[in-house]
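Protein data:
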Amino acid sequence: MPTDQHQAIILCLSIVLNRFALQIGGVVRTAGLRLRLWDRKYREPDIVLLRNRDSKLRQENFWDGADLAVEVVSQSHEDRERNLVTKRTEYERVGIQEYWIVDPEQKTVTVLSLSGEVYSEGDLFGRGDIVRSPLFRELALPVAEILDAN
C-alpha cells in the first residue's frame, strides 16, 4: 500500500506535470488509469503524460502508451524490484519515451530516456539537483521539492 509520503510525491508531481501538460496541449493522469502494455498485460503507473491530448493512445478505459511514465518506489523489496527492474524493461519494450523513477529511500530521481529501442543508462538526480527531462526540455524540477512534498 502506498505510504503518505508516496501519495504526497504523486500529488506534487501530478500538479506540476499537469500544469506543464496544459501548456503544451498534453494530458496527465495518475494511478488508477490502466496502461495497456500488450495483449492482457496492464500496469497502473503512478503518473502518465501524453504530450498530445488528442493522441490515439488515449482511450477511455485505458491508454495504449504514454510519452512519460513516473513511478514512486515503495519500500518493500518486491516493490523495489518491480519499479527498478520489471517496469523498466516493460516500459522500454513498449516504447515509453521517458521513465522517471522517484526513490524516496535513496533520495533520488532517475530519468531514463529511450535511445533507439533501449533506455539510456539514465541520469541520476539527488536532493540538491534539478531534474531535467531530455524529452521535455522546458521541464525542470528541484529534487528536494519532490522528495519533501507533504
In short: The helical segments are 4-24, 77-93, 143-147.
